[in-house]
Amino acid sequence: MKHRFKLFLPVFILIIDLLIDYLLPNTQGFTKPKIYPILLSILIGIYVILSILSIMHNKIYERLLKLSPLLSAVFIIICVWDLVTSKYNLLPLPYFPGPEKVFGDLFSDWSLILISALYSLRLLFVGYIIGTFLGFVSGVLMGWNKKIYYWLNPLLKIIGPIPATAWIPLAMAMFPTSFMASVFIIALAVWFPVTVMTSSGIANVPQSYFEVAKTLGADEKYLVFNVAIPASLPTIFIGLFMGLGMSFLTLIVSEMLGVKAGLGWYINWAQGWAEYSKVYACLLIIAIIFSTLISILFKFRDKILSWQRGLIKW
Amino acid sequence: MVEVYKINDKLQGGAICVSGVSKTFESQVGSEVEALKDIDLDITPGEFLSIIGPSGCGKSTLLRLIAGLDRPDMGEITLDGEKIVEPHYERGLVFQDPTLFPWLNVYQNVESGLKMRKVNSRNDEVQDYIDLVGLRGFEKSYPHHLSGGMAQRAALARALVNHPKVLMLDEPLGALDAFTRIKMQDEIQRIWETRKTTMILVTHDVEEAVYLSDRIVVMSPRPGRIKDIISIDLKRPRNRSDEDFFRLKTEILEILNFIKND
Questions:
Q1: Which fold has domain A110-308?
Q2: Residue B240 pLDDT greater than 50, yes or no
Q3: Strands B16-26 and B32-43
């Protein structure tokens, strides 16, 4: 009985949200069609379907039960947001639009947001791959070879700490297109943490692994590719995560400053027209895309480092 | 052309000759430590030799020199007449810490020995060695799921798969509990009898040395020297409660100054 209450709590809250939105008048003025109540109804529908499925599948039941307090809290926050903005107009416009306005803009402007997202993803992807590749190569070389470390380390120490975004004015002048300039800046931002983590990972591989491999007949190529690199993969992945975070930051900033497309540009453009609801809509999309990318990297790591299962948790 | 061996192939060679070897290290405080001084030692093919002595007597250093991981300051070491200058798969080494590659499972760890020599591994060959050390059924396990004894068995299989002429064991059972250690001693003896590899065992454990060895080298520290070499002529398998066994054990403890003679 207690569990059943917990399971259906999110639906009750969604229905309350819907009732409040229906019964109280809007004071902010809104567009048609009314997206927010439709969205709430869709959520109720999805949740009811999942609840019915959970009767048959124990796994869905347990996940739903685990998620329900969190979902309830989210739906309460949305309700409060609706009350303090659309219903009672407690926060100043245009900076704090209500859910109706934000979801409405998301719905009406979806094609532009989608195109912006695709532009951003293309830039992010190219920059991240190039930066990761170069960072990996320079990190392995530095971690393995003392001479290369001697010459590259000062460069890394001087260039690395400069925020990549500080290069934007120079990059815009040096590269023929703003796309290439942005790729350069993102790659630079990713290169630094990946290089540092890769080289320190390789330099910290226990000497005994190499000694054992040598007595088994390994040559230098084997030592690098089949001992040093796999042994330092856990550290290299920390660099990949740091690099991904840096790339998000750099992407949005460089799009706000120079590139004429992408989510960063969209935010800047919407802000220029004082359409803050579109800014919120875009932020929502950015949150979804970036957290998905991080989850993908986590999945990738879990697959590559499956041998670590039960050994390290982070 | 790389040779491919079968598990039951009898070995040729495996004679180690250490002549006039000295090795000095610089300690962390800057002073020089004579780890080994004027070591002469001949090991015959197929022999089981143990090296025993207190900490700092240079027994592990001697093993590293034979493995080719370090070079002697003076003198030279040969395997079948050829001077040792670098590590080679003909001289296998097993450490106290199994140092299995944690990113490879048991099968891949054993197979890695062959891969390093660029030999195309044959499935049955790797499996033979896994069976030899008694790890059948654990091929897919990763090292951190293995007990200390099992990990050390896997490390043994990995060293054996390359068919080394000499297998060096640097306190391989030091980290194991007493029961596992006795069991592993029998395993090592069984493998030695199957393969007739020359084995050099560094150990702290006098009983272990008497149980397994043809000869025991007793070393003394600062500088590391050979104090005595004792032949163990007991019939195998040896009985730990046997009178002669006990006498030899006592004799070695006396040489090591752990039992005082009045």
A1: MetI-like fold (1.10.3720)
A2: yes
A3: antiparallel
